[in-house]
């Protein structure tokens, strides 16, 4: 349990590849920090530098007041949970969990007690005498956790620990790990590419891309106020819809509107005035973002203002039960968020694919052209070149 | 699958196995009970266990057996230790790895008899090592009944270590890096990593190399023959003794040679049983 500071940490590999650039983060005592980013963004490298498995090229790493750049992994008082569990196959569960204690020459009685305690926390008491090969994926994951918590280290490091589990188990382990972490109060640094894990588990979430830190904030803030286009698109599923649009003000009425391709959407004056910086962007192309849940079927919400709607033809409809995802095209230029994991071609110079999270009551079908309500006060605006949020 | 297809696919391999494995084995057993010399191969004469009795009462047979077992006990452990050490070193080398690998594998690729001749040349008059010996000890080097055994041991280690090395090196490539890193973070230094992570991972390969090497040492012929020829019969292994028995022209006894082969097979089997049992158990465990 200790505060951890990363001060402008940089990693350059011998071949010249710069995996992490000036990464600065401060973890408070007992905090659960999630580092999230697309594949190849340098998040695992960052974690491995904290663990001591990779040299730090530049910058300093401070754990509990001590700079540990040059300290051996085993002397950093950290524990790590790996993606593939990294259990010792020839040892029983008990021996696996006891291994770090045995190496530290913990006296037998204490060792037994601590192993028992860890096994109870993780509900592994029944499995203690089995070999890892006899356990399910979820149980192996727990053993790996056990080996980490048994020592009560200053810092937990977790490298995508849930990515090998099936979806259902992942949801459960997600909650379990967060719960155990809170119970033990150990400062935790958790790396994942899954933004859902990041949002649900972290006290704070750090988004990283191409080795550069994008934004650090509490999950709700990250979602509500993304600092740039990448964070906006990366956090949230389905992703925020992004287009190029123009904000303009009617000369006579003073009313604001956003032009998306051939369609115009009225925006409440308060929403514009809440972002003073937007004033200097009027009548210029900006990046406009709208989250899927801020769109819905106008047939269900007849009272929604008529000037805050667009019409579109439905391409795909996915009924998920609690909600229905609807995909449609908008004739405004598409904006690329720069996420290398985004597989779909979401649009081009003149059209964008857009996703709406509609109420399950919607009766809109593929091929129909319908009216779609837009919660215009929830628009996000970003600079077209820098991709930074336009706020104040 | 109908019968025709079944037989069509299995008969060729069964026929090859029968003709190359079962027929020779049966023939060897049968010949072991015959009196048969090279001079008169046409007329075998059944003599029961006489060949076995002759062998087991021949002090030279026992001398060869003792020396062979001693060779196994000396060469195999050295080969395994050395092979493992070199494999661990090679695993750490990143630059020029393929060069070192090729260089280290040479003894394995060279035909044993050629390797032995080259090695022997080094100790012959005018050879590099005999010259060095003369410089250091100020007396000419001579192969004697005393040192020929050590020369054979050194040469065998040279010849067989690459096999262990390449096998262990291959095994190291499949060791998950995460497991090593986990051990590092758990607090294991080099030796503990070796003991708790690397060696358990190589377990089956260690068994495998031991198995093959023991068999190889039992059958050593070329190296020993090149060094001893018909001299230094004290340093003859079972295989050399066998050939000598079976081919010595006037008293050559093919039947006795076959009896000897059967004894060797039984001998190897006895030594290998614990290894075979162990690896069988491993397989069963792995399947569960």
What is the compact description of this entry?
Chain A is α+β, with helices and mostly antiparallel strands. Chain A is built from nine helices and 20 strands. Chain B has a domain at 61-255: MetI-like fold, CATH 1.10.3720.
Strand order of the largest sheet of chain B: 1-2
Question: Could you give the order of the helices and strands of chain B?
Answer: HEEHHHHHHHHHHH
- Subunit organisation of the chains: heterodimer
Helix content estimate of chain A? 10-25%
Average pLDDT rating of chain A: 90
Structure classification of chain B: mainly alpha
Could you state the CATH homologous superfamily of the domain at 61-255 in chain B?
Answer: MetI-like
- What characterizes the major β-sheet of chain A? 6 strands, mixed
Distance between the termini of chain A: 38 Å
- The CATH topology name of the largest domain in chain A reads Rossmann fold
Secondary structure elements and pairings:
The complex is a heterodimer of chains A (392) and B (288).
Chain A: E1 4-12, E2 18-27, E3 32-36, H1 43-51, E4 58-63, E5 66-67, E6 78-81, H2 93-103, H3 108-121, H4 137-149, E7 155-159, H5 167-184, E8 187-192, H6 195-201, E9 204-209, E10 212-217, H7 219-224, H8 229-234, E11 241-249, E12 256-260, E13 263-267, H9 269-273, E14 285-290, E15 295-297, E16 309-319, E17 324-330, E18 352-358, E19 369-374, E20 380-382
Parallel strand pairs in A: 3-8, 3-9, 6-7, 7-8
Antiparallel strand pairs in A: 1-2, 1-4, 4-5, 9-10, 11-12, 11-14, 12-13, 14-20, 15-19, 16-17, 16-19, 17-18
Chain B: H1 3-31, E1 34-37, E2 40-46, H2 50-56, H3 59-92, H4 97-109, H5 112-123, H6 128-137, H7 148-173, H8 177-186, H9 190-218, H10 222-228, H11 238-247, H12 254-287
Antiparallel strand pairs in B: 1-2
Helix pairs in contact in B: 2-12, 3-7, 3-9, 4-7, 5-10, 7-9, 7-10, 8-9, 9-12, 11-12
């Amino acid at each position: 349990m200790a505060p951890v500071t990363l001060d402008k940490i940089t990693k350059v590999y011998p071949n010249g590849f710069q995996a992490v650039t000036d990464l600065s983060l401060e973890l408070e005592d007992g905090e659960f920090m999630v580092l999230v980013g697309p594949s190849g963004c340098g998040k695992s490298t960052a974690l491995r530098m904290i663990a001591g498995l990779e040299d730090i090229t530049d910058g300093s790493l401070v754990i509990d007041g001590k700079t540990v750049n040059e300290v051996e992994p085993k002397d950093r008082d950290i524990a790590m949970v790996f993606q593939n569990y990294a259990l010792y196959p020839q040892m029983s569960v008990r021996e696996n969990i006891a291994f770090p204690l045995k190496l530290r020459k913990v006296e037998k009685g204490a060792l037994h007690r601590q192993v028992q305690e860890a096994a109870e926390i993780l509900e592994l008491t029944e499995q203690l005498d089995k070999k890892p090969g006899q356990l399910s994926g979820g149980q192996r994951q727990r053993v790996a956790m056990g080996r980490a918590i048994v020592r009560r280290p200053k810092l937990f490091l977790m490298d995508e620990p849930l990515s090998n589990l099936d979806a259902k188990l992942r949801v459960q382990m997600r909650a379990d790990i967060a719960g155990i972490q809170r119970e033990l109060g150990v400062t935790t640094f958790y790396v994942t590419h899954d933004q859902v894990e990041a949002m649900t588990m972290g006290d704070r979430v750090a988004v990283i891309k191409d080795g550069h830190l994008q934004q650090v904030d509490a999950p709700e803030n990250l979602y509500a106020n993304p600092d740039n286009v990448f964070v906006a698109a990366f956090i949230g599923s389905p992703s925020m819809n992004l287009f190029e649009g123009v904000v303009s003000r009617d000369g006579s009425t003073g009313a604001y509107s956003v032009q998306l391709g051939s369609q115009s959407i009225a925006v409440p004056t308060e929403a514009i005035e809440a972002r003073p910086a937007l004033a200097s962007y009027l009548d210029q192309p900006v990046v406009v973002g709208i989250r899927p849940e801020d769109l819905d079927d106008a047939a269900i919400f007849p009272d929604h203002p008529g000037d805050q709607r667009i019409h579109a033809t439905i391409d795909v409809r996915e009924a998920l039960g609690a909600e229905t995802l609807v995909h449609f095209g908008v004739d405004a230029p598409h904006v690329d968020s720069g996420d290398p994991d985004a597989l779909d071609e979401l649009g081009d110079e003149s059209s964008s694919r857009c996703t709406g999270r509609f109420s399950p009551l919607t009766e809109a079908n593929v091929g129909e052209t319908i009216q779609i309500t837009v919660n215009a006060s929830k628009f996000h605006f970003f600079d077209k070149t820098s991709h930074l949020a336009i706020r104040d | 699958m109908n019968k025709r297809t079944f037989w069509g696919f299995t008969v060729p391999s069964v026929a090859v196995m029968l003709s190359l494995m079962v027929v020779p084995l049966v023939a060897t057993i049968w010949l072991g009970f015959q009196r048969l010399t090279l001079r008169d191969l046409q007329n075998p004469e059944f003599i029961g266990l006489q060949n076995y009795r002759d062998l087991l009462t021949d002090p030279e047979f026992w001398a060869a057996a003792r020396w062979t077992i001693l060779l196994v006990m000396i060469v195999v452990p050295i080969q395994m230790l050395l092979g493992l050490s070199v494999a661990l070193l090679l695993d750490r080398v990143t630059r020029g790895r393929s060069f070192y690998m090729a260089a280290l594998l040479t003894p394995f690729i060279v035909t044993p008899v050629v390797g032995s001749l080259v090695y022997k040349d080094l100790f012959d008059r005018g050879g590099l090592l005999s010259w060095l010996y003369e410089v250091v000890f100020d007396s000419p080097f001579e192969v004697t009944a005393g040192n020929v055994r050590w020369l054979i041991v050194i040469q065998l280690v040279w010849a067989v270590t690459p096999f262990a090395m390449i096998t262990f090196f291959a095994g190291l490539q499949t060791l998950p890096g995460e497991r090593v890193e986990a051990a590092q973070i758990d607090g294991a230094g080099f030796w503990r990593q070796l003991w708790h992570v690397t060696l358990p991972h190589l377990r089956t390969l260690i068994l495998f190399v031991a198995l093959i090497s023991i068999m190889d040492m039992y059958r050593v012929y070329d190296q020993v023959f090149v060094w001893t020829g018909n001299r230094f019969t004290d340093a003859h292994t079972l295989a050399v003794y066998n050939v000598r028995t079976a081919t010595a022209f006037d008293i050559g006894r093919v039947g006795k040679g076959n009896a000897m082969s059967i004894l060797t097979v039984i001998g190897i089997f006895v030594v290998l049983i614990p290894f075979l049992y162990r690896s069988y158990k491993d397989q069963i465990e792995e399947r569960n």
